[in-house]
Amino acid sequence: MKKMLMAFGAVALMGISAVAAEALVQKAKKAGLKPIPESRSELYKLIDNPKNPITDAKVELGKKLYFDPRLSKSGLVSCNFCHNLATGGVDGVDAATGHKWTANPHHLNSPTVYNAVFFEKQFWDGRSPDLEDHAQGPIQAAPEMAATKEHVEKVVNTIPEYVKEFKKAYGDPDMKPTFKDVADTIAIFERTLVTPSRYDKYLAGCDKSLSKEEKEGLKTFIDKGCVNCHTGIALGGSMQPFPLMGKYKYADIGDFKGDKNGMVKVPTLRNILETRPYFHNGAVWSVKEAIKIMGETQLGIKISDEEAKKIETFFGALTGKKPYVRYPMLPASSQKTPKPDLN
Amino acid sequence: MKKMLMAFGAVALMGISAVAAEALVQKAKKAGLKPIPESRSELYKLIDNPKNPITDAKVELGKKLYFDPRLSKSGLVSCNFCHNLATGGVDGVDAATGHKWTANPHHLNSPTVYNAVFFEKQFWDGRSPDLEDHAQGPIQAAPEMAATKEHVEKVVNTIPEYVKEFKKAYGDPDMKPTFKDVADTIAIFERTLVTPSRYDKYLAGCDKSLSKEEKEGLKTFIDKGCVNCHTGIALGGSMQPFPLMGKYKYADIGDFKGDKNGMVKVPTLRNILETRPYFHNGAVWSVKEAIKIMGETQLGIKISDEEAKKIETFFGALTGKKPYVRYPMLPASSQKTPKPDLN
């Protein structure tokens, strides 16, 4: 009888716990939080570009181009220089710095490329609708890769192996890859850079994949209202108002004013513990400080040290599994490939 | 009978060809040319550091450090920035350029890290006896990574995952990794960066692994005397006199004068078709031009266009198979990790 009671007790406890767990997951879903799908086909539906479907050949070629510094004017700055896949998809400096060691003129921080496919818009001012359009920007930006379209086309078309790979990837034996083809193919690679984590397993129904403390952090994160902006699959990625010139403690660093309506793209919180410094101007080096500032400026509330700590603990569950990247061996330049110009 | 005669003829032809092939291999070996051993144990004997034996754990940790830009003052410049494994182990620019976009003050070109383990000395002036000693240089050099020893030690010791990996790799639970440990571990990774090619198979006895044209090129290479300096496993790597200030066409680019005896380290010819520009000051962008200049300045002979072309064809056989490198995902910084300093 005692045994039976104990067993009953255990079931009851499990029941209560299961109910609470279910409630938190429901709460999270109601708040718009969504997992990265576990199913490959579901995921591909979300990340694919119907106008230029993902294939292994395009991803492999896109990876090469992503890592190729020769696309830049200097021959030294690849996409990976600022969006380093080894360090959370960012460069770890406050203002993005590229060609001639020039910092971004608005003191803008390099956002992570991981999970950027889930953003509604690209760039801090949301001026770009997708990764294909976005990829054209930094390659040409003077303080980043500083290349012209002609330079990029000349580099790719004077490296026979690249031309061959483009022809094969796009099934066009007469292809002469254009700047747009290069950007589109880089974007295809970037579309695959998603990092599922324990958090996704949790939202998908695996209760034990988050610790008690992480669940408490998630609850605090929702209750405080962080989910108003940090929602969806990316926990960010939409355009939202941000009091850049007002209450924000470091508003004087840089002159970024958002889009024409003062809206700023919400950064993703996935892998956030790996992507310091924080905010559009990289002014904040501590996650806890960032959380507290957000409470003040965005929500008009005070988030206590203890609450910030709980939310930070939850963020640990957002550190995802990075895709396996074999470092590419790039095809050699030919005599016709443009020489680097460091000036 | 006719059939028999034909068969006899074929055997005779094979015999002649085999004799000629054997003669060229013997000639190459007599000239000091040596293959990268095919046998893993023989290779390890050659590349290992008895004071700090190669292990998988050290190689993996060394790879992470090699790719980690946080070891530099700016947080932007890793070993791989100048010795890019994707592009033949070099940066493709004439003068090495690093911290604050500063070019090497002597206009020295970044030599390839591939097969550097086979060099007798490191650096263009041979001032370093091995990769362990060498690795300490660029990390601290002002125009390269510009870090202090203290910076490097602080970075590594404030990233718990790194400390854990050092402890594990060296079997020392109390290890507090020093600057020397970091350089030594990077060197261990570099020791594994060898690139066997068809040329090695040929020297090891597989006649058909070089084409007829490549064999002709090898013969020309030996006959012209290139092997006087470009010999051994690396086809280079020893200290030799170089008329830097005299006959060399581009002697006015940079002020490098070699070691105290005017000796300069001979660059390896392995992967040479991937590592333009050429010479210590990166002044020459065409292999054929480089070959002809070497004939004039080093051998006092005229190498014709046709001969240079043959030698270049042989160089194609020196493009080796690069080791498989999984791009490392680096451990996250902690709150105590030094912030990057771009100045």
Please describe what this structure looks like:
The structure is a homodimer of 343-residue chains. By secondary structure, the first copy, chain A, is an all-alpha fold. Chain A folds into two domains: 29-40 and 196-316, Cytochrome Bc1 Complex, Chain D, domain 2 (Orthogonal Bundle); 43-191, Cytochrome c-like domain (Cytochrome Bc1 Complex, Chain D, domain 2, Orthogonal Bundle). The first copy, chain A, is built from twelve helices and two strands; from the N terminus they run ααααααααααββαα. In chain A, strands 1-2 form a two-stranded antiparallel ribbon. The longest helix of chain A is centred in the N-terminal third of the chain and has 29 residues, at 2-30. The interface between A and B is large, with 41 and 41 residues.
Instruction: Look at the helices and sheets of chain A and give the structural class.
Output: mainly alpha
The CATH C-level class name of the largest domain in chain A = Mainly Alpha
Query: Helical element count of chain A?
Result: 12
Question: How much helix, percentage-wise, in residues of chain A?
Answer: 40-55%
CATH superfamily of the largest domain in chain A: Cytochrome c-like domain
Straight-line N-to-C gap of chain A = 85 Å
Gross morphology of chain A is globular
Assign the CATH topology of the largest domain in chain A: Cytochrome Bc1 Complex, Chain D, domain 2
Largest interface: A-B, 41 and 41 residues
Task: Give Rg of chain A in angstroms.
Answer: 23 Å
Strand-residue fraction of chain A? under 5%
Assembly classification: homodimer
Element string of chain A (H = helix, E = strand): HHHHHHHHHHEEHH
* CATH architecture assignment name of the largest domain in chain A: Orthogonal Bundle
Main beta sheet of chain A: strand number and arrangement?
Answer: 2 strands, antiparallel
Number of domains of chain A: 2
The overall pLDDT of chain A, averaged over residues, is: 93
